[in-house]
Amino acid sequence: MEPFKVHILGCGSALPTPRHNASAQVVEVRGKMFLVDCGEGTQVHLRRSRIRFTKISAVFISHLHGDHCFGLAGMLSTFGLLGRTARLAIYAPSELKDVLLNQIDISCHGLDYELDFHAVDTKSQKIIYEDRSLTVESVPLEHRVKCCGFLFREKPVLPHIRRDMIDFYGIPVSQINNIKAGADYTTEEGEVVPNNRLVESAEAPRSYAYCSDTRYIPTLHQQIKGVSTLYHESTYGEDNIQRAEKYSHSTARQAAMVARDAGAGKLILGHYSSRYEDEQVLLNEAQEVFPNSYLSDENAVFDV
User: Fold this and answer.
1) The dihedral of CA 52, 297, 259, 159: what is its sign?
2) Looking at the annotation, which residues are catalytic?
C-alpha cells in the first residue's frame, strides 16, 4: 500500500515546555506532504524529522491561537531562503490572511513563490481540498475562537487485476480498464468470464481525523464515523475536568469516548497541558474507554 502516515512535530499545548513543542504535524499521503498547524519551533522539528521543506504542498491551520500558528510566518520566510518557487496553498480561518500578509510585507521581502490563501468556514463540514487520490474536509469544533479539525480521506481505488487470469485467458491490454471498471470478459469461444474471477478487491480507503482544540462534543463522532486513525486533543485528565470545561478543552477520557463512538481504528492523544510531567496518566484514562489509544510524542510516526 502507498504510505499514509502522520509525523508528529509538536504535541504540547499553549505553555512551552522542554519536553514538548507547540502543535504541528505532517500528514503524508501517497508521496504528498501536508502540514497541519504550525506552532513555534515547527521548522526545527521538520529538520529533526528529516522532512524536506520543499515537499510540503499545503498548510492547514485549525485556529488562530499562537501555539497553532505562530511558526507559520517564519517557515514561509525559510521557504523563500531555500529558493522555493512552487505555489503554496494555505487553508485557515479568514482572519489569518491579513495577519500573514502584514508579516510577509514587513519581514519576508522578495519571496519567489506565491501563496494561495483559502478561507475555511469553521462552522460547516465540507471538502476544502481535493486531488486525484485524496479529499480533505473541514470538521467544525468548539473552542474559544473559530476552530475546525481536518479529515483526510483516501479516494477508493479500482480493484487489482489478477495477472494469472489475464494470462490464462489471453485477455488483450485494451480490455484491462474495462475489467477494472467492473466488466466481464467474453472469450473468442463465447465463454463469459465473470469479473470477480479476473480481479482482487483493492484495499479499503484509509482516513485520518485531526481534532484539536475543542471541548468534548458528544456528536463529533458522527462527523468522523469509521475513521481509521483519530488524533484528538487530550489537554487534561479527569482530575482537571473543570479546567477543561472552562477553557474549552477535552480530557483524555473524553477523547477516547469520541474514538469509541466513531468506531475509530486507532486514537492518538496530544496537546498535553504542561502540568503533566508524565502523560501516562492520560493514556491510562483513555485506554480504560478505548484500548487502542497511543500517546503522541515529537518525532513519532504513526501509520494510518
Assistant:
1) positive
2) 67
Which pTM was predicted? 0.90
Quick check: 180 pLDDT over 90? no
Give every CB contact of residue 177 below 8 A, 6+ residues apart in sequence: none
pLDDT (mean) for 215-238: 98
**Contact between 235 and 213 (Cβ < 8 Å):** yes
Q: Show Cβ contacts of residue 2 under 8 Å, excluding neighbours closer than 6 positions.
A: 29, 30, 31
How are the residues of the chain apportioned to helix, strand and coil, as percentages rounded to the nearest 5? 30, 30, 45
For residue 9, which phi and psi values (nearest 5 degrees)? -100, -30
**CA 287, CA 132: separation in Å to the nearest integer?**
36
Give residue for cell 510524542.
Answer: 297
- For residue 92, give Cα distances in angstroms to 20, 48, 85, 183: 24, 26, 22, 43
**Largest alpha-carbon pair distance within the chain?**
76
